[in-house]
Fold this sequence. Notes:
The chain is α+β, with helices and mostly antiparallel strands and 262 residues long. The chain has helices at residues 7-65, 90-102, 152-164, 166-192, 198-224, 234-249, 253-261, and strands spanning 69-70, 75-76, 80-82, 85-87, 111-116, 119-125, 134-139, 143-148.
Amino acid sequence: MLRTGDERIKEKLMLENDVKELQVLAAEHKNTVYEMQDKIGAFPDKEQKLTATLDGLHADRETLRKLPIDPERKLPVFKITIQGTEYTDRKEAAKALETAALGIRIADTPVKIGSFQGFDLSVTVNSSAMGGGITAKMQWQATHSTKLIESFAHNLNRLESALYNIDGRIEGVKENLAKLRLDHAEAQKIVAEPFPQQAELDSKEDRLKTLTDELNKAAIEAKKNVPKCKKTCYFERAKLKRDAMKIAKKPRKGKEKDKSKN
């Protein structure tokens, strides 16, 4: 048997713990690499979409800048066309918008009802599976969307906000594009770098294997050197037991002679 005080046993236990912890870290690093590879693979398509959106927003902003401005509201002069009729009065426009939107009988399908400031205007009645509600979209080079509410007078303001807040949207897309490119560069860096503790893991795995082999050989040798105990065969023990019983049953000769004399 191996002595419990063998320092190699203590070293083996410590190495097993270290190797286990390093293997967990290596697996986490591998999973991270897989995630980064997915990001790298998806990058071209995402960059193309954001770039196209940004180009479209720039083009739409130039279109909006050409519209005449209402000096009182500091916004483009109000103009909306619904079902072929052009409206410049907001109350009439709100009523026409309400009639057109509530008259839609199909769900989850955009229905073109006219135009707003020259941008195609469509309305979608969303089913409960799609979250419900009514969505309006204005389309030229880019898409500008807003949720409609019960007050169609306020919905005109929502259309204007969705379209006229184009500067904010451009900045938002620029930020998203910059972040996407930054994440892509970081992902490439992570994929290119190996597991930082790989050398330590390899070294400890090799030492653990060597140590395990040494201890196994030592255990085999220790087992060979153990003194063999004399073992009595089962049948031999049975024979000894039978002989002892026979001896016990034999009459003692001295006692028999005494009885005959009497």
